[in-house]
Amino acid sequence: MVYSDKVRGHYRQELDGLREAGLFKQERYIRSPQAAEIEVEFPAGAEGRMVINFCANNYLGLSSHHEVIEAARTGLVARGYGLSSVRFICGTQDIHRELEQKLTAFLGTEDTLLFPSCMDANAGVFEAVLNEQDVMIADRLVHASIVDGMRLCKAQQDTYKHANLEHLEEKLQLHQDKRHRLIITDGVFSMDGDLAPLDGICDLADKYDAMVFVDDSHASGFIGKTGRGTHEHCGVVGRIDIITTTLGKALGGASGGCVSGRAELVEMCRQRARPYLFSNTVAPVIVAGALQVMDLVTRNTERRDKLEANTAFWRAGLKEAGFDLKEGESPIVPVMLYNARLAQEFSRDLYDEGIYAIGFFFPVVAKGAARIRTQLSAAHDRRHLEAGLEAFRKVGQKHGILGMGKKEITERFGL
Amino acid sequence: MDDLKQTILEYVKHEYLDDEDEDLGYGTPLISGGIVDSFSMVSLKRFLENRYKISIPDAEASPEAFDTVDSIAALVVRFKQA
User: Fold this and answer.
1) Dihedrals phi, psi of A358, to nearest 5 degrees
2) What's the total number of domains in chain A?
3) CB burial class (10 A; 0-12, 13-18, 19+) of residue A37?
4) If pLDDT is split at 50, 70 and 90, which confidence band does A73 have?
């Protein structure tokens, strides 16, 4: 028998190690559609209970929007459930191309290619456009999928300090001997919620003859005056060479991602990106739903405006209560607790108060930077936010941290 | 040896710390201490190879070997002698 007791014992030990280190992840079963209020079964087998959700990427509240559901239903009937093919054999329907064109227009780029997910887009894009004569220079806090994609690419890797333009400039000077230089950054950083300084990055790219890559998964649909993304917010639409983004967050929340940008670079992905070439096409039902999402986000800015107002109200409320927040403009609002155990206990206490918000700690964030990451949605109404703030105040009081900064919290709880 | 350690320490401070005045010693855990992650370690390896004209195989560039300025200096000395 290959899967011997010895082999089983090894994996059990590994898993026990994760448990002991407090790194073991457990899913919580949700019995309702994604929304501001969801029914959660936790722990497994417990009675379901309604909680207010502050940890979804459902920024625009479109995950269960009636128009999206109806369009998906219509698409399911009109174009079928699956295509049983990769894109380039017999997996491209007219609606796939239509969605790519709508994304191109929305993002202000030259062309777009759909991928099964943004994780896949990031895994495939670098290898498709760069080789060993080139260099990739990434912000140190880019998403894990970008790190994986860079590892699959033969170009030289380098990094710069988070959002630090001086350090980036040093790296660009260092790599002037390379054929192509690609600066790589997230638009909005998912753990801190801060925005990349894309205007400064584009200026440096011009100065040192580099291309710019932005993963705008936590921005597409709502950052910028009309929700186009971080490039709109920073005034650099048309200056980003490659944008990757997801349909799995604000833009409907189902699945799917894309590479969008310069026509030749997108075409290189169509010819060479392995996750595009060797995995199934995005299902017609998802494409049909996403087309309706694109219609909703271009119809008006009502939802992103509400999200912006919700974020401002939430930030002000938490600050007034005396919490230590990471500054930022995005609907990702990290409440800093610094100590990992405190973050876990805080999250559990919030859940007891009917608030679903998750604690993050090392290795997901740096050591001594544990936090509760809260995420706002246009689906939240004022009553959700008020209930959330009340719960935060109550739990903050219980742990005695209101009004405390990093120094006081770490002196009391340790790092 | 102290010169070597000082050079490495200065590089690490400049390359990885946001506040270069932050206290960092030869024995401070860099990777297990969360100061340098494995993704960013690439630039340190390249710096050592260029500066000291050595080649460190990927298998030798482990998080353990790169965890402190002391252990990095020992690695450099070993490859310079090889």
Assistant:
1) -100, 145
2) 2
3) middle
4) very high
Q: Is A28 exposed, middle or buried (0-12, 13-18, 19+ CB in 10 A)?
A: middle
At residue A57, the pLDDT reads 98
Cross-chain residue pair A140–B37, CB shorter than 8 Å: yes
Single out the residue of A65, A257, A222, A232 nearest to residue A143, CA to CA: A257
Instruction: Classify domain B2-18+25-81 by CATH number.
Output: 1.10.1200.10
Counted residue by residue, chain A has a size of 415
Asked whether the beta carbons of residue A157 and residue B42 sit closer than 8 angstroms, the reply is: yes
Query: What pLDDT sits at residue A1?
Result: 64
- DSSP one-letter code for A283: P
Peptide bond into B57 cis (omega under 30): no
Residues of A identified as active-site? 190, 218, 249
User: Is A19 among the domain residues?
Assistant: no
- Over range A346-364, report the average pLDDT: 93
Q: Is the dihedral of CA A9, A12, A18, A21 positive or negative?
A: negative
Read off the pLDDT band of B38 (50, 70, 90).
Answer: confident
CATH number at residue A364: 3.90.1150.10
Q: Where residue B61 falls among pLDDT bands split at 50, 70, 90? A: confident
Is residue A92 included in any domain, yes or no?
A: yes
Chain B residues with beta carbon closer than 8 angstroms to that of A367: 33-34
A107 in any annotated domain: yes
What span, in angstroms and rounded, lies between the C-alpha atoms of A110 and A105? 8
Tell me: do A365 and A293 sit in the same domain: no
Do A325 and A151 touch, CB atoms closer than 8 A?
A: no
**Range of the structural domain that residue A88 is part of:** 66-299
Whether residue A10 is contained in a domain is answered as: no
- Do A104 and A142 share a domain, yes or no? yes
Q: Which residues of A touch B37 (CB under 8 A)?
A: 140
Q: Do A159 and B16 touch (CB under 8 A)?
A: no
A vs B, Cβ pairs < 8 A, gives 23
Residue with tokens 């990702």: A332
Q: Give yes or no for residue B22 having a pLDDT over 80.
A: no
The C-alpha atoms of residue A316 and residue A12 are separated, in whole angstroms, by 46
Give the whole-angstrom CA distance, residue A291 versus residue A322. Answer: 43
ipTM score here? 0.85
